[in-house]
Amino acid sequence: MEETGLKVLHTADLHLGSAFTNLPPEIAAELRKEQKDMLFRMVGICREADADLLLLAGDVFDRPFPDKEIVRLFTDSMREIPGTEVFITPGNHDPFFADSLWGVTEWPGNVHIFGPDRKSFILEAKHVQVDGSAFSGYTADRPLFEGVERTVPEEYFRILMWHGDLTDQASSYNPLSPGAAFLKDYDYVALGHIHKEQTDKIKGSGNVLIRYPGCPGGRGFDELGESFFWLGCCTKGQGETWDKVPAGTRAFLWFSADITGCEDADQVKERLLRAIHKETSVLSGASSGKKSLMRIVLKGRIPEELILDTDYYANYLKTQGFYYTQIVNETGILRDLERLKEQPGFTGLLIQNYLSRLAKAGSDEEKKELENALEYVFQAAQGEL
Length: 385
What we know:
Elements: E1 5-11, H1 25-49, E2 53-56, H2 68-79, E3 85-88, H3 101-104, E4 111-113, E5 120-123, E6 128-131, E7 157-163, E8 188-192, E9 198-202, E10 208-212, E11 228-235, E12 239-246, E13 252-258, H4 265-280, E14 293-299, E15 301-302, H5 310-319, E16 324-329, E17 332-333, H6 337-340, H7 346-360, H8 364-381
Parallel strand pairs: 1-2, 2-3, 3-4, 6-7, 7-8, 8-10, 13-14, 14-16, 15-17
Antiparallel strand pairs: 1-11, 5-6, 9-10, 11-12
Helix pairs in contact: 1-2, 7-8
């Protein structure tokens, strides 16, 4: 059997033209610009790696009728890599409508788009068959692809592209059963739709490598961490090797900072910087800490006299060179219970009862429930509930 090799770049869920509506307008505008930089970086990786294939497994655009400028930029970018064959499966955000960009745009010759009636492409020069399907609406309760017969020689590499949910459960987004019989006919399954990286081998189906690459750029605090493209070198009969290549986009980070024991603003600042360093020390390149978008939740218990102004601390971090930070205050009040239990009347009796029950608590969960109950009582007494 003739050995054939392929260099493949796999990504999905670019969501070009996203609105970033949950962020300040000036931040949203900059992130839209940086989406274009991410597109240029993807093209640059294809060029530098001399990639044979670029697999875009759905939701290239955030909506089916994006601005003409971003469509033009995308098509021009694909023309810059004529030696790379580009395959696209329109997803649930950018489905293949008759009058959408997929059907009306003049695409470069190296771009191949799956449509409602096109399920397979064969490239004889590269010894590869790529199969897939397209959303033709915003949902798909049933699988959009159920396999095609092999018509190419055994030495051909076979790839399945799939935008949807890898599940045996009911789904409105093109469900793919991990046990589907036709999977055994493929060497690689390039998934999209789930924005978090997942890689596995489907047992019982020829150990087919199947992967969600994760989105190459987060759009909010529900898409956290550093983003990557996946670059593979695949040799028929010898397996494949894959590398994660940083996408160069800003990371969204959501973490907590325990400020228990802080007595003034300077100590809070120090604790914030310490938490940020711990969270961002593993990031690289453009996703380094100061370029990330952070949501920091303040935890712990603080003295009553320490007033936390979240805007003040967010602005402080901005003066230290951090790009964008949201501060959320979830701290509680550190109360002098030993002093309060000596007070006459209801307050003293309440605290004595609380301390007694706390000493008898059998688990951390029970202790937490008691602490929360006491805090609710104090808040109610102050008219906060």
